[in-house]
């Protein structure tokens, strides 16, 4: 039974900070979702809150109804807590300073509230946001250690959906659908090309760009030139679904791409539409071999191919992969990552390097 009341002159979509503070001090259970950036959550947040930060492309999928809020929560304990409480208890969402009076509600917190309400939850936004709540209820706030496992979600991923696509390959299974530069593979590095199923079946284009290694990240797209000794294939049988573990194949895929580089051959990484699975593998390769962060790798690939859209699960796997790289290079932080070259391989600037292979 909901225990929070709306105060006079406040819409049903908002909860007062006084009401929330009173309920929390009484020890009543409320599901609280912190919709601010991770850095703000780490500094201080309402006790017991779950941090949910959505990249832009995930916001669009949530709008379309293609994503459940539970999928945004990466930590299992937090996900269990959400699943247990969201239908039976009040849900309070907050950003930094949303208020009922000035309609200054952020897109993310408003979208999440409406989605929860549509699904049957009693969800409201905290009036004044965390900024005002902290002023009157500092005793109900706490900070988080940066290594604490209670940090949830794709928090630092600065991914925007400015391409206007935001759909995974499973949303669009027609490889003949028009897309920017679909006629040619896209050059990500001098030897590394990103493309779709059509590109992998175009013999003339493969020969033109010196592509002799083909990394097929699908379970069912045929390796058309497998019997031709001029080509070497590696097939990763992973579907574009939330349940799939693509990261298990990262080491094998990275080694295959590096073998092509060492043999001075071009390598094409493709899936069905060339926007999700192949993009994920390409980002993983850039992160490990070019010593860059996930943000940098994703931004680089997105500039090369604006319609990229890896599914949410794969983004989470890339975040975990980034953490594993950091553990291996503990003396270097993510913010210190930058493009650098291995074995004297020169990496052109993004503008020079990211182009359709024409």
From TrEMBL:
The keyword Nucleus does not apply. One of its GO terms (biological process) is negative regulation of MAPK cascade. PROSITE patterns: RHODANESE_3, TYR_PHOSPHATASE_2, TYR_PHOSPHATASE_DUAL. SUPFAM superfamilies: (Phosphotyrosine protein) phosphatases II, Rhodanese/Cell cycle control phosphatase. Residues 26-142 form the Rhodanese domain. It catalyses: O-phospho-L-threonyl-[protein] + H2O = L-threonyl-[protein] + phosphate; O-phospho-L-tyrosyl-[protein] + H2O = L-tyrosyl-[protein] + phosphate. Residues 184-327 form the Tyrosine-protein phosphatase domain. Keywords: Hydrolase, Kinase, Protein phosphatase, Transferase. The active site is at 271 (phosphocysteine intermediate). Gene3D superfamilies: Protein tyrosine phosphatase superfamily, Rhodanese-like domain. CDD domains: DSP_MapKP, DSP_MKP_classII. GO terms for cellular component: cytosol. SMART domains: DSPc, RHOD. The keyword Thylakoid does not apply. Residues 247-308 form the Tyrosine specific protein phosphatases domain. It is an enzyme of class 3 (hydrolase). It comes from the Eukaryota. GO terms for molecular function: kinase activity; MAP kinase tyrosine phosphatase activity; MAP kinase tyrosine/serine/threonine phosphatase activity; protein serine/threonine phosphatase activity; protein tyrosine/threonine phosphatase activity. Its EC number is 3.1.3.16, 3.1.3.48. Belongs to the protein-tyrosine phosphatase family. Non-receptor class dual specificity subfamily. PANTHER family: DUAL SPECIFICITY PROTEIN PHOSPHATASE, DUAL SPECIFICITY PROTEIN PHOSPHATASE MPK3. This is Dual specificity protein phosphatase. It comes from Mytilus galloprovincialis.
